[in-house]
Amino acid sequence: MTWNKSENALKQILENANTWHPNIKLEYKIGKSLPFLDILLTNINGTLSTSVYHKPAAEPYVVPFISDHPRHVFENIVQTSLRRAIKYSSTFQLF
């Protein structure tokens, strides 16, 4: 979200929202970049750009080459990874 008031005012609203329900806690990050699911959102001089975000704890898309999976499984992993990277990148340079 974008916010035109002070950062402290935003923090107060978010901290207040965390008191509304004991089982729901909001996490927030204030800055120029934000990882969200598999996308990295970045504000570059007022322009929103997107690129692929690799979670540090996530396992890569790898199937052992000696596994008994059919050949098309290996091809699908590569194709899907490339397709996702192209979709998530807002510019060719970020891809």
Description:
InterPro entries: HTH_animal. This is Helix-turn-helix domain-containing protein. Residues 61-95 form the Helix-turn-helix domain. The model has no long low-confidence stretch (mean pLDDT 78). A hairpin with a 2-residue loop joins strand 2 (39-44) and strand 3. The protein has helices at 7-17, 71-88, and strands spanning 33-36, 39-44, 47-52. Helix content is 31%, strand content 17%. With 95 residues, it is of the alpha+beta class. It folds into two domains: 1-30, no CATH class; 32-95, no CATH class.
Question: Strands, helices and their partners?
Answer:
Blueprint: H1 7-17, E1 33-36, E2 39-44, E3 47-52, H2 71-88
Brief digest:
This protein is α+β, with helices and mostly antiparallel strands and 95 residues long. The chain has helices spanning 7-17, 71-88; strands at 33-36, 39-44, 47-52. The chain folds into 2 domains: 1-30, no CATH class; 32-95, no CATH class.
